[in-house]
Amino acid sequence: MTITATSTEADGGEATDLRQTQGLTIGALGAVDLVSDITISPNPFTPNGDGVNDETRVEFSLFKVYAARPVAVHLYTLAGRRVRTVEAAVLAGRRQLTWDGRDEEGKIVPPGMYIVRIVVEGDSQQEEQSRAVAVVY
Fold this sequence. Notes:
The protein is mainly β. The protein has no helices and eight strands.
């Protein structure tokens, strides 16, 4: 399980100087949150090895992160027990991780609801966002 970047092409248009840099920086004007646009798909998913919906994708957008910063994605049971964590240093943009329904020891988790908690150490603040994902068989 790793955090990866996905890319989309930008259309030409008006550019605004937000800060001085040595390169091109694209920022979202008016962005308040560090983490936004979180999607989990498929949800629920069925990691039973049959090749159908065996993994779920957790996608999110990061804003206001101008240098590589730590991002941690934790997966918890509803009782609060952490079952899996992935960490990476990333920049702003669209990010994705894939969860195969396994815990830190590589065992398939039991069916139920799980909490996906995304923690970002931004340039000026820390933010956490959580969503639920269901594992079914």
